[in-house]
Amino acid sequence: MIDLGISKLALIGAVALVVIGPEKLPRVARTVGTLLGKAQRYVADVKAEVNRSMELDELKKMKDSMTSAAQEVQSSMREVGSEFERSVSGGTDTVQTDVPAYEPAPPVYRHPKKNFRLKQKAVPQWYKARQGLRSKAQSGAARVARFRPKSRFQ
Q1: Domain residues of the chain, as ranges?
Q2: What's the whole-number mean pLDDT along residues 20-49?
Q3: To the nearest 10°, the Cα dihedral for 135, 141, 147, 152?
Q4: End-to-end Cα spacing for the chain
């Protein structure tokens, strides 16, 4: 790694000022800064891509181990099931082994009770008017103005 201290940076700046000149130095410094920023972003992107690929490899290994464990459990369950069937069929002669396994019935369609096209609980306008309920939307300021007590001078 390049060891740059404050003294070395000052020396580089002085040489650049003499070689490039004071007129072009700010533009050159901006260009160098943008190039360094792009290089840093590129390095960060490469690091992130390497980390993602490493994590992906780890996830693939974990997936393989999980699938192998699941297959082992499934094979052991088959062995237990076959042992159980042998013990049941060998113990009694009245058990039927050709009976199909229990299968749940498919769900039955039930018509919804509510007709979504009709309003079920709409209050009629004549009832709202008779009871003094609001029939139209009003802003808060309009509602306050409506119920504000009248002054004597109006």
Answers
A1: 7-86
A2: 90
A3: -140
A4: 87
